[in-house]
Amino acid sequence: MVTQVAIIGAGGMGAWFARLLKSRGYRIIVASRNPKKARRLASQLRAKSVSTNVEAARGSDVIIVATPASTTVAVIKEILPVTSKGALICEICATKSVVQPVLRTAQKRGIKTASIHPMFGPLARGVRGRRILVIKAPGDVNSRKMLKRMLEGADVFFTRQDVHDKRIAVTVGLSHFLNMAFAMTVCKGRNLAEMRKFAGRTYDLQMLLAEAIAHEPETTVDIHIMNREFRYVLREFEQNVRILSKIVNSKDRAKLLAQYKRVSSSLAADPEFESAPTSFERVTEAQSAGSSGRRPVNARRGR
Q1: DSSP character for 92?
Q2: What percent of the chain lies above the pLDDT cut of 90?
Q3: What DSSP character marks residue 29?
Q4: Which of 88, 150, 255, 291 is 20 to 30 Å from the Cα of 201, by its Cα?
Q5: Which of 222, 206, 126 is nearest to 172 (CA)?
Q6: 204 with 287: CB under 8 angstroms?
Q7: Are residues 179 and 66 in the same domain?
Q8: Would residue 125 be called left, alpha or beta, if left means φ above 0 and alpha means ψ between -120 and 50 degrees?
Q9: Can you give the CATH number for the domain in which 26 is found?
Q10: Could you give the CA distance from residue 110 to residue 169 in angstroms, rounded to a whole number?
């Protein structure tokens, strides 16, 4: 019997999961708040699209909720009454504290649940070797078995909800915040095309990150607003900016150099610190070749 998977959300990650599971023989049904996107995705996959989330969830064996974090809880509450006992609801948002209560409600109704976080974007090719975080929950053995079948080949890492949100506040929240602050500064009163003429590789790479993140502002906003741990990370960042600003404004070169050396010493604990200059060269060379339509001979494939 073919498993029916409902994909709720026809955006980047919803489409990514739909393509993956279609290629693995699952029967796909798509719903979205944007019916045109749902129909287009379904047409591409030779799948079925429906007009409502409820219609998609009813009778499905697996429901993947791939909506913005700000609407994930509402979507799950909407589909709970029609989700069959024994079915699996799997949500993929980047802030886990907000969804745990509604998932526990689903579990009490005999519905399996999974809370996962793909650590890659919708342009990723295939699942093999891709890191996917999975939130551990009591009594979710059957859910894990279903996930293992669907995501075979992925690099699955199990963690707790509280640990997830603390780590993501730094690795995703802070990274996105830094790039948005950088972009706001660069864009203010400056001609971006002209700036490129004066750009070195560091600027080009920073702009690449900022512009990629700017393509999905809703995801960034949700992490910054909904992840309660981010406010603590933001305070740390603000303190560090004040420390560096004070030194710079005092024109104390020796003190600033000593501060940067302490940073370098701290970063040395990162396993990838020593290889960072070489990695930077490879990334910037690949980025430069890509922008000019060429590909360096020794550049690595993938992300």
Answers
A1: -
A2: 85
A3: E
A4: 255
A5: 222
A6: yes
A7: no
A8: beta
A9: 3.40.50.720
A10: 32
- Determine contact, residues 182/203, Cβ cutoff 8 Å: no
- Cβ contact 55:212 at 8 Å: no
Range of the domain at 111: 4-159
Q: 35-45 and 12-23 helices cross at what angle (nearest 10)?
A: 20
Instruction: Give 222-239 pLDDT, tens digit per residue.
Output: 999 999 999 999 999 999
Separation between Cα atoms, residue 126 and residue 147, nearest integer Å? 16
Q: Using an 8 Å Cβ cutoff, are 60 and 4 in contact?
A: yes
The model carries a pTM of 0.88
- Chain segment 235-263, per-residue pLDDT in tens: 999 999 999 999 999 999 999 999 999 99
Contact (Cβ atoms closer than 8 angstroms) between residue 25 and residue 15? no
Question: How many folded domains does the chain comprise?
Answer: 2
Predicted local distance difference test score (pLDDT) of residue 297: 37
3-state class (DSSP) for residue 28: strand
Three-state SS string over 30-42 comes to EECCCHHHHHHHH
Last residue in a domain, options 131, 159, 187: 159
Convert 269-299 to b/e letters by CB count within 10 Å (16 or more is b).
Answer: eeeeeeeeeeeeeeebbbeeeeeeeeeeeee
- As a whole number of angstroms, the distance between CA 40 and CA 190 comes to 39
| Pick from 34-38, 49-53, 133-137, 144-148: least confident | 144-148
- C-alpha dihedral sign at 69, 70, 73, 75: negative
User: Residue 36 has which token pair?
Assistant: 């045109």
H/E run at residue 155 = strand 155-159
